[in-house]
Amino acid sequence: MPRSVNAVASKARKKRILKLAKGYWGRRKNVWTVAKNAVERGLQYAYRDRKVRKREFKKLWNQRINAAARMHGMSYSVFMGRLQTSGMILNRKVLADLAMNHPAAFEAVVKKL
């Protein structure tokens, strides 16, 4: 018997990868093996960097809170410690937004501590 090839599935797989490679430069967008490698690497970076983005934002929020707290004569660690003991439930994202866009509200939080 002749060997049967599932052309439908293999074509669909290649089409899916080449669609993901749309916008790449040079042979990365239209040559199967090059595109497959580029897309696989890109998906690995995307997976990894979704976690890195969360890390980066937390660092940014901490820096903004620290800068605002120091303007009111307090370090970041002292501010966060007092915030925990006071029982106020505000996360870093909200505190950083208050520090940047609503300094009066941030000052009210500092005075409440």
Order of helical and strand elements: HHHHH
Question: What is the level-2 CATH architecture name?
Answer: Orthogonal Bundle
**Class from secondary-structure proportions:** mainly alpha
> What is the approximate shape?
rod-shaped
| Low-confidence spans | none
- What is the count of β-strands? 0
The overall pLDDT, averaged over residues, is 94
Strand % is: under 5%
Number of domains: 1
Helix content: over 70%
How much is the radius of gyration in Å?
Answer: 25 Å
Number of helices: 5
- Profile the largest sheet: none
The CATH class name reads Mainly Alpha
CATH superfamily annotation:
Ribosomal protein L20, C-terminal domain
CATH structural fold name: c-terminal domain of poly(a) binding protein
Measure the end-to-end span: 82 Å
Describe this structure in words.
It is a single chain. The chain is mainly alpha-helical and 113 residues long. The chain has one domain: c-terminal domain of poly(a) binding protein. Helix content is 75%, strand content 0%. The chain has helices at residues 7-20, 32-71, 76-86, 92-101, 103-112. The chain is rod-shaped, with a radius of gyration of 25 Å. The termini are far apart. The model has no long low-confidence stretch (mean pLDDT 94).
Short description:
This protein has 5 helices and no strands. By secondary structure, it is mainly alpha-helical. The longest helix is centred in the middle third of the chain and has 40 residues.
Summary keywords:
113 residues, mainly alpha, c-terminal domain of poly(a) binding protein, 5 helices, 75% helix, 0% strand, rod-shaped
